[in-house]
Amino acid sequence: MRIINVDTITGTTLYGCFYGETYRDVCVILTPGTCGNIFENKFLQVIGDKLEEQRISYICAHNSGSFHIIDLPHKINGTKRCGFSFELFEDWFDDIDAWINYAKSLGYKKIVLGGHSLGASKVINYLSNKNNSVVDNYILLSPVDLSMQSDKEKEQIPRLLIEAKKHIENNQPEKILSVMFDDYNVFCARSFIDFMNLPNHFPIYQKNGKCFDLKKINIKGLFVIGEKDWFANQDAKKHLLLINENTKNKNNKMEVINNTGHTYQEKEIELSNIIIDFIKNCNKKVRLMPK
Questions:
Q1: What is the distance between the alpha carbons of residues 149 and 4, in angstroms, rounded to a whole number?
Q2: Are residues 106 and 229 in the same domain?
Q3: pLDDT in tens, 210-230
Q4: Which of 49, 65, 70, 243 could lock onto 84 through a cystine, CB 3.0 to 4.6 A?
């Protein structure tokens, strides 16, 4: 594994981890979710190790929302304060585009774009706004209906919105809010308001919700979720079926991993093998190592 970096079109430098960089057949680009990063999420590491064993290249593609708070190099401003606490929706597309362009520049025959949790939403946002031919297949790990989180924290949200708007009125858009959202997420004022207005790419539990972006994607996908994932709404199989019903290409692969949750603890190898099987079945003409 090697640490690499790419520059977005707006000048931010993103860091990633590259496994199997000597291969040029298939490259899996996986973008983490809320605060997600390869140093804190074991499954992102195991996927890299297992794919590399199969001669499949893998990039853990950190984005502007990876980590809680991180200062990244910026071509114009010197540095830019990033991390989920400061992330804005406007960065989503450019982050993924930078990693896709990097892989394309290396001449890969096949590119598979994946995302975990909020990263899955970023993948759908990217593919629905880009010609689908830019990648060959896509992977959604633990896709989330954002309305579930909003419903859970419906009493907390109005108080935080009042505080966030007050900071912005006082010309302090990057001031950190006094209370964590959902007992975990640390937001600055501007990013919290932005998060509350995010498009919901998987509104499967939202009344009259429509998955417009999913219907724009023609390529085949792999959808995976842990049986005990809270976002699966107590029925992981149904969760994936509801997503698949809203896709244009119904020939997607769906897998529920038993006895694990949102980050696949103790099931990292099983998750990796599911991804490997999906890639091999989709790319039978590409020479890959047998398991």
A1: 33
A2: yes
A3: 888 998 999 999 999 999 999
A4: 65
